[in-house]
Structure formats: structure tokens, C-alpha cells
Amino acid sequence: MREADASARKLPSSDRAFAVAIVLATLRRLGEIDALLAVYLRKEPPVRVRNILRIGVTQLLFLKTPAHAVVHVAVEQTAENIKTKPLRSLVNAVLRNCIREGESRLGGPDSPVCNVPAPLLKSWQQAYGIEQTGKIAEAHCSEPPLDLQFRNRNEGTLWCEKFAGVLLPTGAVRLRESRNVPQLEGYAQGAWWVQDVAANLPVRLLGNVSGERVIELCAAPGGKSAQLCAYGAKVVAVDRSGARLDVLRDNLKRLRLQADEIIEADVLAWKPEAPARFVLLDAPCSATGTLRRHPDVVRRKGREWGSDGKYLTRLAALQEKLLARAGGMVEKGGVLVYSVCSLQREESEERIDVFLREHPDFTRETIDAGCLDGLEECVSSKGDLRTLPCHLEAFGGMDGFYAARLRRHG
Questions:
Q1: What is the DSSP letter of 379?
Q2: Rounded (10°) CA dihedral 337, 321, 233, 201
Q3: Closest by CA position to 155, among listed 198, 185, 199
């Protein structure tokens, strides 16, 4: 992996961007691709050949790369390795079959769900129903848009015109085409930062934080820190990763924003000098709500999605500890907001239910859709924030997020 990363860094920027696009598209559609290859493969080929075929199918059917170039490169790559060289004819034949009839074999109504590992798919169907899960899986197949959030919240219309973008109900501007972000107008001047519309919503649950001290836990790399600072909060940003905090500092510096304190510490060991009226915990999670952007999330080694999988169990245990710690930092009458970019109930509703049973001095407060700029579909039956990738469908969807607003009583 390190050698591959090093090789990729040596590529010209345009070639590197194309390579990344191929990998991401392949991962998003991996289930569909493998189902198609199963039609043409009588037995399992070497891993190298399977991956060459996967990439070839991606370019032919999803990226619409010229067919002759795709087949030529795939055959050459197969020939480069002495063990796979005898399979050149196989690779050529499979890809040419895909050119002739591949599109007709794809595109069924259930195709998108093929890309979701079975245990994960089952958990979503139980949580959201079969129809909604199908929409989530379909949304995950698309390339994510680029959402810009503004230091001055009133400038959305202005920048929308500059970029010929789409103004979202929340005031963010969405760019549908890929852009070289640092080269865009306003970047160097710190007028905006990139943050998906869903990731912008949890901070809003805190309410009016202007002039208020806000403890932000697991704060790096700093999108929510920027948002809090832009809202006029006195931010105490805490994270255990020094490298990620450096990114946070750089982001705030570019945006001409400043946190009151930036603290490198383990949240489970750190204690503030005094409780705060507002505490935000954006907890580490499985990130299954961000599969459009990070389709590798469900394919990484060691991430088991079954009910007996240890991965979610470990995350849930950590989240419980972080929640308990965060609760102790909230002054009486204050607000705690817990958020995760996960679609898993184990990391969201279930964690809050456990926390409330163990901490009777806290109660859940129902979210008013008004603080979400009227996005009523993003308020769950329990009154929490629950965004799904298929929400805001008319504008191209959004990341999956969960957040709960909790009040501490005297």
C-alpha cells in the first residue's frame, strides 16, 4: 500500500485524479461489478487479474472511457506479471463481452443493494425499511458533490452566482462538478470551507452560541470548529491527534477565525477547568453515512458488520465512555450534542438510550426543524437529527448523520 501511494504521488495531477476516480468508482460499484464478472468467469482468477477486470469494467461501464484503450491497458497489465501473462486472452475476452452486453446486464432495480455487504444491508433494512435502504444504496453509487459553507452565512447567494452553483436550503452552495478547491476564488481569502450539508447540522442543535464558551470534543480536523467560531462561540477544541489538530489550526488560520483554546489531549483523560453551558461531542464512528465519499469504509480489513462483529461493539463501548465523559463537562441547565456520521443504530439511538438510562439528570430535547432550515425529513421519530444519503434528493443527496440534543437538569 505504501508503494502504491508513493507511485501515485509521482503521477501528474490529472493522472492522479483519474486514478483516484477509478478506484472510488470501483469500490462504490464493487458488488455489481463482481456479479457481472461472475457471468463470464468459470473459476476464480488470481487476485491481480480480478482487480484488472474490475477496473476495466468500471472504466467501460461507469466512467465511459474509450473501449479500445481500456482493453489494451488491461491486457498489457496482465502480461506484465509472469504468473498472469497466460490469462491475457481471458482478460481480453471478458472485457469485450462487457463492451457488447455489459450495460444490458446491469441496471436492475435491485442493483445498488448488491454493493452493500449483506450484514450491513440487513441492519439498514431493519432500521429504515427495504424501500428506504434501496434509496440509500442508490445514493451511495453517485459521486458526492462539493458543498461550501461560508464564514459569513449571508453570502451564500453571492458565491452561488460566482460559482454557478446551487443554493441549498441551509445556505450552503453546492458545486456539482469536481473542482481544484485551493484554486477556487475565495479559498485563499478564507471566505468558505468545504463541508457536506449534513455535517453542518449538528452544531446548529446547540442553539445560540454567540459569546458562549463551547467545549468541542474530538474536534479535529475542524469543520465544526470553524462553524462554531463563525457563529461567535468561544471554542475550546480538544483532540488527541496532534497531526489532525495541526490541520484544524491551518484551517482556522486560512478562514481568519480563532479558537480560544486548542488542546491536544485524550478526551477520556482530560478535564476542563470548569463545566460549560455547551458541549459538542462528534464521536469516532464507523462512518457508514459517508460511503459516497469513502466507499472503502465497508471494505477495510477488520471491520465486521454482522451482529456478532467486534468492530461495532468496540466502537459502541468507546462512544459510551466518551458520552459519559462529555456529560460530566456540561453545567447544570446546559446542552450536550452528540453526533456521528454513521447509519448504524448501535452508534446512534442505542447509545443515547443507554446514556439517558444511566444519567437521569439528562433528558432528550426534540429538535425543531426550524434550526435545520425546515429540513423536516431529517428529524427522526424520537426527535433527533437523522440525515440519510437519500435526503435532499432534489439537490443530489447528503451524507448520513445522526445527532441528539440532551439537556442537563439541576
A1: B
A2: -40
A3: 185
Nearest to 49 by CA among 330, 278, 40: 40
- In 36-175, where do the E strands start and end? 146-150, 166-167, 173-175
**Residue 31 half-sphere exposure toward CB, CA atoms < 13 A:** 21
Give the number of other CB atoms < 10 A from CB of residue 334: 20
Supply the residues annotated as catalytic. 341
Average pLDDT over residues 99-118: 87
pLDDT in tens, 23-66: 999 999 999 999 999 999 999 999 999 999 999 999 999 999 99
Using alpha carbons, select from 393, 405, 406 the residue that is nearest to residue 197: 393
For 157-225, the DSSP string reads HHHHHHHT-EE-TTS-EEE-S---GGGSTTTTTT-EEE--TTTTHHHHTT---TT-EEEEES-TT-HHH
For residue range 157-183, list pLDDT tens digits in order. Answer: 999 999 999 999 999 999 978 788 999
Strand blocks (E) in 225-294: 234-239, 261-264, 276-282
Rounded to an integer, what distance in angstroms lies between the CA atom of residue 219 and that of residue 302? Answer: 25
